[in-house]
Specification:
This protein has 14 helices and 13 strands. With 362 residues, it is an alpha/beta fold.
Length: 362
């Protein structure tokens, strides 16, 4: 079996880390893989990567925090420090490829790899490429994209490197458990219509507050909620009996299976998972994203009839009536589910791994 050596820049959030992990895991099925991950020592990658058995090297670079933040003024210096750290890694490790999964961590790796003639592969999860990926896209040999729309935001040269293979996700969602069984797993009634609501590992206060407000009405109509609050939300003491509340859900395959409707943010990882599991969604884009990438992701799914977009500022007024309308219209839910499944690319990680091997001529 051939050997492939990678330096991977991925992290900040699970949505940026796990697509890269998924590609590396698929590469392990077809080659002997040696991988070094670089990232922020204070974010998810520092905890997850060593547990997966890969070497982790911390970088000093941190993201843009606005003009009033000292971190922003230090950014040029931390980019240079991180660039030099990676150049040293490249000289000793001699990687075959650099895999960049977006966010600020990708920039120094993309730059260093380009300067040392190491092929650069980008993973672009969003309809609008992030700032880091746009900055290094022209240096990329391969761009694995989730949305065809991303090409229009890249130079003509960079667009030629794009392959729309989907956002790579890990194999957890390959075969969902039985819906009634999944509901029972979470202490829910097996035969009641179910809404899954979540806002990521840290939660989303606007989603949490809107869920609390609609619980009594859902109870009256015989529906139930599986609700991931995130770790920083204080749940009201007195809730109706039709809700299971968890700060974090490890078994998302069962959570998706239990749901008739999903209420969530619209990050690249989430919309990729929704496509693979084929679940109708009410998408609430994160309102403070610099490029409004989540809004564009949600709009792309709304345009094909797979989801409905609700802006964060309208959520309190619109979530409950929208959920009620859909629960009362099974045909509409089925049409949305079919459209969502048409967006899904369950083999994106496998296809991306093969594209990397083809790029390297292996």
């Amino acid at each position: 079996m051939q050997t492939i050596k990678l330096i991977v820049a991925a992290g900040g959030t699970g949505g940026d880390l796990f697509p890269a992990v998924a590609v590396v895991e698929q590469l392990q099925h077809i080659a002997n893989v040696e991988a070094i991950f670089v990232g922020n020592p204070n974010r998810i990658e520092a905890d997850v990567v060593p547990k997966l058995g890969f070497r982790f090297v911390p970088l000093s670079v941190k993201g843009y925090k606005g003009l009033r933040s000292l971190q922003t003024y230090m950014l040029p210096f931390t980019i240079v420090q991180s660039y030099l750290t990676i150049r040293k890694l490249i000289s000793t490790f001699k990687p075959d490829v650099a895999l960049c999964a977006g966010t600020y961590i990708s920039y120094p790796l993309g730059l260093a790899a380009s300067h040392t003639k190491v092929p650069v592969v980008l993973i672009e999860s969003n309809a609008i490429p992030g700032k880091a990926n746009r900055s290094i896209a022209k240096r990329a040999n391969l761009i694995v994209a989730a949305f065809d729309e991303c090409k229009q935001f890249l130079s003509e040269q960079a667009a030629r490197a794009v392959q729309v293979l989907g956002n790579p996700i890990r194999q957890t969602f390959g075969a969902l458990p039985n819906q009634q069984q999944a509901r029972t797993t979470f202490g829910l009634q097996p035969n009641k219509q179910t809404i899954l609501a979540f806002g990521g590992s840290l939660g989303a206060r606007s989603i949490n507050n809107a869920v609390v407000a609609m619980l009594p009405q859902l109870e009256q109509m015989g529906a139930q909620v599986l609700w991931q609050t995130g770790k920083n939300y204080t749940v009201p003491q007195h809730l109706p009996a039709n809700v299971t509340v968890l700060p974090f859900i490890d078994d998302m395959a069962s959570a998706y299976s239990a749901a008739d409707i999903v209420v969530s943010r619209s990050g690249g990882g989430t919309v990729a998972e929704l496509g693979v599991v084929g679940k109708p969604a009410l998408l609430v884009p994160y309102p403070y994203a610099a490029n409004k990438e989540q809004e564009h992701n949600a709009r792309a799914l709304e345009n094909i009839g797979a989801a409905k977009l609700i802006h964060d500022e309208h959520l309190a007024a619109q979530l409950e009536p929208t959920v009620m309308e859909l629960l009362a219209n099974p045909n509409a839910l089925q049409h949305m589910a079919t459209a969502m499944a048409s967006h899904g690319k369950p083999h994106a990680a496998r296809d991306a791994a093969h594209a990397v091997m083809k790029l390297l001529g292996k």
